[in-house]
Design brief:
Chain lengths: ~210, ~210
DNA sequence: GTCTATACATGGATAGAC
DNA sequence: GTCTATCCATGTATAGAC
């Protein structure tokens, strides 16, 4: 049956990307992982790139859906930071972040993969952006920080650090620690009194140019 | 002559990586770019991966050397920020950041490339770390922010954003803008009076856990 | 020691079988 | 409509020529 084969291929593509990387994600390897004939990729998806693109969108939607309601229920940057830590750890373990990194790199020279990766990343960014714009409003950063830009910077940075982890686990650990400290700084602003907040705002205006 | 061929191959590998990405960086393609026979890669470097590894170290050293003295001459975070902007723009245009991204992704499943990329990135990180630890000392972040971790986070984040730019130029632009605002915040702290600095320090201690 | 011609492996894609 | 057997391009690696 067609639908079953298509899904086997999507799962096979995801598993191959996560376990062996884009370099090994050939039609033959993916088909073997999926347990189907190699030619089926071209029948069902047209090309390897298009299968990978479909798998990217499929996988990202699957993963983001896991967190959507819980993100909407958060009430402070501190809570977000706490939640983000466990979320990142879970996605890292699932190999999802590294997979996006692989596709992102491949997307540099494949328009099909570029569009798919932008879409997949976009799902994460959308969630981040909406929770950030809701929560930043309660801090002195309101009106100063741009939630859309921050969401994109955060998503891209995590992917960069995750890729970095693959070549220097210890260095990546210290990078994540440093960012957590920085995020904790912003979260700490929530707890300041109104006088201190005013001082901070003045500092921000001066820092801006 | 041997040395000339080796250098042609190193340059050819760099050009291929920058212009066509890791996916096209095969022995045939690189050799064609370098204008030499394909088999020479294996004679001089043993394998394609080892050539790419050598090229990565070669290229990173070349690029970092350009900035070493100028970074050492900087005297404030504001100056650093200004300089970093032009430096990043120049490297971006040269394709160097994207190349590191390509190698970083490939390094996930190739120990040889992983080691080389870690080394290449390490050169940038080393420069960043030394200038950051020197300049952060003059701000309220002194003792709070970890220069080693920040340098690694910065380098990895820029690579992530650069890869992101390949699939969503506009989104990457807003991400960079947001980070510049954030960096400007830290730079602004330099100009605060001692009372305000004390308030900020108190906030930081509260934000830390 | 340096390089080229050639062998062998893997990958993408499709014509045609069911 | 679904799938398999087969073709051709591209890739790695080396035996042997110079």
């Amino acid at each position: 049956m067609s639908a079953a084969t298509k899904e086997k291929l999507l799962e096979g593509a995801l598993r191959t990307l996560v376990e062996q990387g884009i370099a090994k994600a050939s039609a033959r390897t993916i088909a073997a992982t999926a347990g189907v004939g190699q030619g089926l990729i071209f029948y069902h998806f047209g090309s390897v790139d298009e299968l990978l693109a479909a798998a990217c969108r499929f996988g990202a939607e699957q993963r983001v859906a896991r967190y959507r309601e819980r993100l909407a229920a958060l009430n402070s940057l501190t809570e977000l930071l706490e939640f983000a830590r466990s979320m990142h750890e879970a996605e890292r373990a699932a190999g999802n972040v590294a997979m996006l990194g692989q596709l992102l790199a491949a997307g540099q020279s494949s328009p099909v993969l570029a569009a798919a990766t932008a879409d997949g990343l976009g799902l994460w960014i959308q969630e981040l952006e909406s929770v950030l714009s809701r929560l930043l409003a309660a801090t002195p950063l309101d009106g100063y920080a741009d939630p859309a830009g921050l969401a994109r910077a955060t998503a891209a940075s995590f992917i960069g650090i995750e890729l970095y982890e693959g070549v220097d686990p210890q260095g990546a650990g210290s990078a994540l620690d440093a960012l957590e400290q920085l995020a904790g700084l912003a979260a700490g602003l929530e707890g300041l009194g109104s006088l201190s907040q005013r001082v901070v705002r003045r500092g921000l205006r001066r820092g801006a140019r």
